[in-house]
From TrEMBL:
It comes from Pseudictyota dubia. GO terms for cellular component: membrane. GO terms for biological process: anatomical structure morphogenesis; system development; tissue development. The keyword Kinase does not apply. It is a single-pass type I membrane protein. This is Uncharacterized protein.
Amino acid sequence: AGAYCGGTGGDPDAVDEIVLEYNTMRGTLPPELGLLTSLRTIRLGYNYDLSGPLPPALGDLSNLEALDLEENSFAGPVPASLGRLGKLRTLNLNRNGLSGQLPAGLGNLTSVTVLDLSENRLGGTIPTELTAGMTAAVEFRLND
């Protein structure tokens, strides 16, 4: 397993990439992650013991282009705050335990080309805002 956390200088606010896939990480994502406003990429997939809710503070990462949290044990709703990530191109939350209805605000993610929320416990109807707003989407997976 490899790990990478990149940025410039020693300033933690300058970290622009966190790649910690396949690292047997445990616990929850801290809300303080939202303070790393220079982040462009978060890839924490395949850490099967990462759990708990997704922190709404993820929506504060205004420069985020890729959020890949596949194959973990996150539970609870998809935070509506993710709809504020205007630069996001990839949102991959598949194979977790996410539940509830999709927030209509995800329709604000007009730059998303990959949206994968498959193999979760999501319910309800797909908000019309989601399909109307994501005009750039190339890959769109919502099946359970």
